[in-house]
């Protein structure tokens, strides 16, 4: 499973080059729930590192620039 995650992250970098982008902006970091949310290279990442709890009730504000 970890190999699949690594492969997916590498594929994402090949497509969006996010690893070489400037440092990420951390939107949310919750130690108790083991959740981190950050933005980098125009992408939003939400990671849950808790071993036994799935969390789906976090709200995340994002800035979207609309071009009309």
What are the defining features of this structure?
alpha+beta, 1 helix, 22% helix, 3-stranded antiparallel beta sheet, 68 residues
Topology (SSEs and partners):
Elements: H1 2-16, E1 25-30, E2 35-40, E3 43-48
Antiparallel strand pairs: 1-2, 2-3
Provide a compact summary of the structure:
The N and C termini lie far apart (42 Å). The chain has one helix at 2-16; strands at 25-30, 35-40, 43-48.
SSE string, helix = H, strand = E? Answer: HEEE
Q: What gross morphology would you assign?
A: globular
Structural class: alpha+beta
Q: What's the helical proportion of residues?
A: 10-25%
Secondary structure tally: strands: 3
Poorly predicted tracts of residues: none
Question: How is the largest sheet built, in terms of strand order?
Answer: 1-2-3
Mean pLDDT: 86
Terminal Cα span: 42 Å
Number of helices: 1
Strand percentage lies at 25-35%
Radius of gyration over all CA atoms, rounded:
14 Å
Largest sheet: 3 strands, antiparallel
Any overview of this molecule?
By secondary structure, the chain is an alpha+beta fold. It has one helix at about 1-15, and strands at about 25-30, 35-40, 45-50. It is globular. The termini are far apart. The mean pLDDT is about 85.
């Amino acid at each position: 499973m970890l190999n699949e995650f690594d492969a997916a992250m590498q594929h994402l970098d090949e497509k969006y080059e996010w690893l070489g982008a400037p440092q990420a902006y951390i939107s949310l970091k919750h130690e108790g729930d083991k959740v981190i949310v950050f933005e980098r290279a125009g992408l939003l990442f939400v990671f849950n590192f808790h071993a036994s709890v799935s969390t789906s009730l976090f709200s995340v504000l994002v800035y979207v620039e609309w071009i009309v």
